[in-house]
Design a protein that fits this description.
Layout: H1 2-11, H2 35-46, H3 54-64, E1 71-79, E2 87-97, E3 100-110, H4 113-116, H5 119-129
Antiparallel strand pairs: 1-2, 2-3
Length: 133
């Protein structure tokens, strides 16, 4: 846990609270991050300004690179507690265009599987409306 806490502080990631469970603190523990904090983190990843070796950041970029003409890097997520009460979905990433990175974070409550499936289409529509895709 001390290593996780130190890592979160080095990254300045969200509230940096790893709690007490090393294997689930980001899912059902105290770690939280706002959409704005997430975009700041993603911008640093896009610009390779995180405290990680360059090959590690390049590997993450390759893993989350999306198909298509635009340089789109993104990842979905969906938090559903055991009681399926307050479910939260997200789609985060960045678009590279004209030599600049445009980070984004879409975050919303999910009421059912159909709503969860709308994360990427809604996000892409917003990016297209902004002229980024």
């Amino acid at each position: 846990m001390p290593r996780m806490r130190d890592g979160l502080r080095q990254l300045d990631y969200g509230n940096m609270d790893a709690g007490a469970k090393v294997d689930t603190f980001w899912l059902d523990g105290p770690l939280t991050i706002s959409a704005i904090e997430q975009t700041r983190f993603l911008e640093r990843l896009a610009q390779e300004r995180l405290p990680f070796p360059q090959p590690a950041m390049a590997a993450v970029r390759e893993i989350i690179r999306q198909e298509g003409e635009a340089k789109l890097y993104a990842k979905t997520g969906w938090y559903a507690p055991d009681d399926r009460s307050t479910q939260i979905g997200w789609w985060v990433g960045w678009v590279e265009k004209d030599g600049k990175a445009y980070p984004f974070a879409l975050n919303f409550d999910i009421v059912d599987d159909a709503a969860g499936a709308k994360r990427v289409p809604l996000g892409k529509a917003a990016l297209k409306a902004l002229g980024l895709l």
